[in-house]
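I am writing to request your help with a piece of structural work I have in hand. A protein sequence and the structure tokens that stand for its backbone fold form the material at issue. Please examine both parts with care and let me know of anything in them that strikes you as inconsistent. The record follows directly beneath this note.
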Amino acid sequence: MAQGANAIAKQNSVPEGDFLGKIKPHAELIAASISGVLIAAGWILSKGDSQTASVIAFILAYAIGGFAKAKEGIEATIEEKELNVEMLMIFAAIGSAIIGYWTEGAILIFIFAMSGALETYTMNKSHKEISSLMELQPEEALRITNGVETKVHVSELEIGDLILVKPGERIPSDGKISRGQTTIDQAAITGESIPVSKDAGDDVFGGTVNLTGSLTVEITKANDETLFQKIIQLVQNAQSEKSPSQLFIERFEGTYVKVVLAVVVLMMFVPHFLLGWSWTETFYRAMILLVVASPCALVASIMPATLSAISNGAKHGILFKGGIHLENLSHLKAIAFDKTGTLTKGKPEVTDVIVAEGLERDEVLLKAASIESHSNHPLANAIVKFARESLGRELVHPESIEDVSGWGVKAHFENEDWKIGKADFVGRPAAEAFSNGAAVELASEGKTIVFIERNNQLAGLIALKDVVREETKQAIDLLKSEGIYTVMLTGDSKNTAKAIAAESHVDGYIAECLPETKVQQLKKLKEDHGQVAMVGDGINDAPALATANVGIAMGEGSDVALETADVVLMKNDLPKIAEAINLSRRMNRIVKQNIVFSILVIMALIASNFLQFLDLPYGVIGHEGSTILVILNSLRLLK
């Protein structure tokens, strides 16, 4: 897949001065334009005495304008052993020339070539996100081996290698900062415009910009497994995977073409004997039928719209792994959300600090944070971070410290003995009675309580909570306004689940879920509501993501979640789910418009032909014009 990405990069990168390389993406449009000029020349010459020159101009128009589509149609027919729309157009153009309608046949080729150029334009637009992203990936890295710096290609980097990234340079690959401190612009990956501070031990992503400090980065992922490459792979896969509607149209096309050809053959003879038409009129009407009955607009109703929508989504940080998932989003009736890291930030934050009367809040917090700074526990890290940000003072070091596994920490400062931990560690009766039962009330809000004891007296408590994301309420409210049922699945206790569910505005919650429980709940939701999506970020969410009709992963989630999901929110932006659903509904609406419009045009043109109202020039314009209108309608999804 990485090779495919490189191929696209090569295809879209043009060496300076390479004229052929520059015009290649526009070759179909140029050929169609030249064909148009030749048609005009042929028509002008046909009005004079230069009939031979006129025919030569038309033949050149046929060859230049029709080459790409004819080649495509013949190759597809040989490969699939089935006739297609392109072959119908070739037959129609040749048939028009046979009966002397050179201009009409050439116009047919010209408009067909223009519609093909529009389809190619749509495809190129869908590749735009990949191309622009590929340009952000450095090709070389400065590898450090035994203190020696060597410039190597990024493909040569291996897990465990150390690389030097200087200020102003792009980071070549995913890794972890081994030494150094800096600010990084991650807009290329996350879309966030505000640079992020990074210290030793923090993860960094390939394609992001190191703004300030010099870094030594340890490579943690192979070049073809970086987040950067995953984005490219996801979009590539989405472009190659077809929606159910597109697959149906393609199956329908083969049968339809055979029926049209059979009817055209009958049309060449039957009206002459049954209706008394002349042979010229019979053959002429058969050629018009061949033109107007071709399902070009119908075939072009879906794929350009799907590609435009996928490109639009990629531009806004929503990556679809295929047209089928984009199409399914509009049918969702319920969405299940994982709690940790999805509805919430996934990291505990200090929400309340309460100290005993007569004690200084800042002093108690300083001592507690100083003790917790010796622990790697997530709650301890949250307390230390909160203290540093709110106090603006340096932490102090205890004279001694002892970790009591499963309970908490003991420490000694000069003449003071401190304990930090669970309620039972400091005495449950005292803990529950502290500050008029504040701990019980805080726990009912889904918060985790850490108690602080000084010299055998309860000195205070710190309440922490996995805080709901700021955008969560907005995202859930948007979905509910669309009539979608929302439910939270979590492994937390009922009290915590109830509090988070109320805060995040979801319709319901299911607590104490194991991975297999989530799968069971997803199956039940599918029975009750029909089409269901699952949103998650962790390894334990993967089974549920796979069970749902549409699995949606957070961009910063685990590799397993990203691989399993059908849609990825690169910016971890939950309101993008409603945006993705609206994009899906827009796409399906435009596809329906295209299909209805193209069928009505075909029916009107066929009826007009049988009633002998329709001449070949108008048949060509009506048929090919409808194809162009359908593609232009699809391109609205790029906005």
